[in-house]
Amino acid sequence: MAGVHVDTWRETYRGLMNDAVLDDPGLLDWRERFQASALSDPRYEQNNVAVALHESALIGIAMSGPSLEDPDEPQELHVLYAYAAFHGSGVGTALLNAVIDPTAPAALWVVDPNPRAQAFYRKNGFVPDGVVKVEHGVRDVRMVRRTQAANTR
């Protein structure tokens, strides 16, 4: 899972994120520690995790759980990545729906600009709510899905 996370970050964020971060030799170790913690630490037992396979190869990952920034949000998408070769194949929607009920309210953070990802989330009922954060030189916008009605556009 950590390998997919690192590979897809490099595919997705090259030019949006500092190359020194993406090329850091310790990036894979960092993501491995993150994944191990997310899968085994009791603090994260409310998280939902899903993976996507194609011909026995791991091609995508997703994780949701309680919101880290807003306790009023019932659920937050923390991770959703699939290799670029599988964009548009339905893998992303399957992963999203596996970790968050498609009718449930939820929130997520998405790098901006990232028009492909933002369009994907809009298609799945999420809309920007105007909240923005900048961390490590990367701008993220929060998108939310409040009700089933928002998912029927």
Could you characterize the architecture of this molecule?
- The chain has helices at 2-13, 19-22, 27-40, 91-99, 115-123, and strands at residues 48-54, 57-65, 76-82, 106-111, 127-135, 138-145.
- It is α+β, with helices and mostly antiparallel strands and 153 residues long.
- The chain has one domain (2-151): Aminopeptidase (3-Layer(aba) Sandwich).
- 31% of the residues lie in helices and 30% in strands.
- The protein has a 6-stranded mixed sheet, sandwiched between helices.
- The N and C termini lie far apart (33 Å).
- β3, α4 (91-99) and β4 form a beta-alpha-beta unit.
- The longest helix is centred in the first third of the chain and has 14 residues, at 27-40.
Q: What attributes does this structure have?
A:
single chain, 153 residues, alpha+beta, Aminopeptidase, disordered C terminus, acyltransferase activity, transferring groups other than amino-acyl groups, Acyl_CoA_acyltransferase, GNAT family N-acetyltransferase
* H/E element order: HHHEEEHEHEE
The CATH topology comes to Aminopeptidase
Biggest pleated sheet:
6 strands, mixed
Strand order of the largest sheet: 1-2-3-4-6-5
How much is the radius of gyration in Å? 15 Å
Rounded to the nearest angstrom, the distance between the terminal CA atoms is 33 Å
Please state the structural category: alpha+beta
Strand content: 25-35%
Number of helices: 5
| Helix fraction bin | 25-40%
The count of DSSP E runs of length 2 or more, i.e. the number of strands, is 6
